[in-house]
Amino acid sequence: MSKPHYDREHHVKKATGIGDPQCFKGEAGPAKFKVGDKVRIKDLPDIFYSRTQVYTRGAPATVAELVYESPAAEDESWDNTDNPVWFYSVVFRQKDLWPDYPDAFANDTVETELPERWLEPM
Amino acid sequence: MAEKHKPAPMVDEVSEFEVLEIAVRELAIEKGLFTAEDHQHWTEYMHTLGPLPAARLVAKAWLDPEYKKLAVKDGVKASLEVGIDWVNSMPTKFGTPSDYCNLRVLEDTPKLKHVVVCTLCSCYPRPILGQSPEWYRTPNYRRRLVRWPRQVLAEFGLQLPEDVEVRVEDSNQKSRFIVLPVRPEGTEGWTEDQLAEIVTRDCLIGVAVPKPGKTANDPRPVRPAVNPYHHH
Description:
heterodimer; A: about 120 residues; mainly beta; SH3 type barrels; about 30% strand; elongated; B: about 230 residues; alpha/beta; Nitrile Hydratase, Chain A; two-stranded parallel ribbon; about 40% helix
């Protein structure tokens, strides 16, 4: 019985000289959201690993930019690069994150990047 | 008697993290993942990094509107003009594993002020800014900036009017960020060299704004706790 072979260098071979996330360009398919769309951050369970901050869960946001395509952190942390998704830069109003944020500074915002699977249309 | 003349050790002790780093490094060399020579090259490369290229990028952007457009649209491409190649740098040649290759240049306006944090860890655009300052990595800064940005900025000496939007950029995925501040008054007719001098590391993180004559970072303010814990 032959030993199962796992290519530990698959990412190095793909990304060298091209860059990461550039090496996943064109692999996510059509983007579900566009700039200006109102979205809500899903409150998904995060078993083992996530890079979606807890303070963003359930909050409304606006898509500011489609930034790149890449596997989501939840997959990539296990070296799974099979399902790249679109990443969006989204902007929150501070007031929507922290209800007691002072009204005097109602314009203040937080911007962060999230993979498509964490966003739902509003 | 010889004891008396023994020089004091340069470091008192090696931290657990340093021990761990040495152990992992030696294992990796023993297993042939990289050589001791590779490691020396990477370490020397890391020590060459600092905020000067980013300061140069900002100064160029202030002087050349076309370059500013490029910087905001494609930070990685704009970095090439200040000598930083995000993609082909050591050690990996695809963005070091934690830095990746997506620099975003955040353009301030008179009504919008950006400031960068990484609440999840301490992501920092090291190829163009060097190693992060110690305070940037502390839980204190990371927790509080996103929640009380104006108070934290005030501690750095930056008080902003109510009508300026403070935008906290929480660097949580593969983009890395530098701030392109507003060019200050009193710099009319300045050369690129003169302008680059006032773009300090703190201005590039967003906790300070450039001022003519100010070419160094302020020391990080350390204030006593409001309700200190007393040991009885």
